[in-house]
Design brief:
- By secondary structure, this protein is an alpha/beta fold.
- It has two domains: 171 residues, Rossmann fold (3-Layer(aba) Sandwich); 148 residues, Glucose-6-phosphate isomerase like protein, domain 1 (Rossmann fold, 3-Layer(aba) Sandwich).
- The chain is 48% helix and 15% strand.
- The strands form two sheets. It has a five-stranded parallel sheet with strand order 2-1-3-4-5, sandwiched between helices. It has a five-stranded parallel sheet with strand order 7-6-8-9-10, with helices on both faces.
- β6, α12 and β7 form a beta-alpha-beta unit.
- The radius of gyration is 19 Å and the shape is globular.
- 55% of the residues are buried.
- This is SIS domain-containing protein.
Length: 346
């Protein structure tokens, strides 16, 4: 457990990457407002980790900016070639590289259907930036490990700025405080992370659950465990989990529960923890304060960020768990089998 992976190094770079990204993008909130004038809905176009970031953006815009926000089905454009009326829509394509053809082609299709377009990418000068009406280029720097870490959290930052530009009732000063909060997460003792890793060794599956703003974290944490640890991890809203799939959690399939330390979804997450542990299922908490920690077998604390910013800090322990578990299982977290940094969809 002493070897340092590239993934671990890039996890540690997130506070700096976030500071650079916020310095670059916050002054552009006015440009976003200008472009979006006359639009009322937002359509997110993404895949993989970027799609999970889009889930965060969707909750953020609907809860705080009063805009209907939905996730696109790129095959409507690239496979079916359907014509859809997108007048009054702001289409936001998210791609770490800016070179994924399916995402670029879908944003081009959205423009042809009448949408105004935004590209969110870490790839300055990429194809996505060339076709978007407005490009929000993150400042993550080069990311070499295949599992996205700093490119993911800087995408969250870009979407938080997008929300501010679209009139969200949120405090930009709170957003400025996120890098320091991530510094705090990285400085915390890793006893809780290590204990969860040891409990996951030998497990073939896990359910990762959260709701609201934290749902994006549940999806991304599950994706990381699948990508780097080959764990059959499912990311589910706790509302969906309670409607049947809760039967999959048992003594061999633990529940990893993520929640902000306060907010409207915390109480339900605590109730879910109590329910699964009552039938002998291990439950491990990321965030959720003392309430969730008290209902779970193991817990990793996170800073007291407002609920709308909690996904930034919640994902970091999940990244650390993934990186450590991969190495504990004898896998290379930097280069999972069958994956690359740019995925093209046939």
């Amino acid at each position: 457990m002493t070897t340092t992976s590239t993934m671990r190094s890039e996890i540690a770079e997130q506070p700096t990457a976030l500071r650079r990204t916020l310095d670059s993008l916050l002054p552009r909130a006015g440009e976003i407002a200008d472009l979006a004038r006359g639009t009322s809905q937002v359509l997110f176009i993404a895949r993989g980790s970027s799609d999970n970031a889009a889930v965060y953006g969707s909750y953020l815009l609907q809860a705080h900016a009063g805009r209907l926000a939905t996730l696109a089905s790129p095959s409507i454009a690239t496979t079916y070639g359907a014509k859809v009326d997108l007048n009054g829509v702001l289409a936001v394509a998210i791609s770490q590289s800016g070179r994924t053809e399916e995402i670029v082609d879908t944003l081009r299709w959205a423009a042809d259907c009448g949408a105004r377009t935004v590209g969110v990418t870490n790839g300055a000068g990429s194809a996505l930036t060339e076709i978007a009406d407005l490009s929000l280029v993150t400042e993550a720097g080069s990311e070499f490990a295949v599992p996205a870490t700093k490119t993911y959290t800087t995408q969250l930052a870009a979407l938080a700025v997008l929300a501010l530009g679209l009139g969200a009732d949120l405090d930009a000063g709170e957003l400025r405080g996120v890098p320091a909060a991530i510094d705090d997460v990285l400085a915390m003792p890793e006893d809780g992370v290590d204990a969860i890793v040891e409990r996951l060794v030998g497990c073939h599956g896990a359910v990762v659950s959260g709701r609201g703003m934290a749902f994006s974290t549940a999806l991304e944490a599950a994706l990381k465990l699948k990508e780097a640890c080959y764990l059959h991890a499912m990311g589910l809203s706790y509302a969906d989990l309670l409607h049947g799939p809760i039967a999959v959690v048992d003594a061999e399939t633990p529940a990893i529960l993520v929640a902000a330390n306060s907010g409207p979804t915390l109480e339900g997450t605590v109730r879910l923890a109590e329910r699964v542990t009552s039938v002998g299922t291990p439950a491990y908490a990321i965030g959720g304060g003392s309430a969730l920690a008290g209902a779970c077998d193991l817990a990793v604390a996170t800073p007291d960020l407002p609920e709308w910013l909690a996904p930034f800090s919640l994902i970091v322990p999940a990244q650390l768990i993934t990186e450590k578990l991969a190495r504990r299982l004898g896998y290379d977290p930097d280069a999972p089998r069958g994956l690359g940094k740019v995925t093209q969809t046939a």
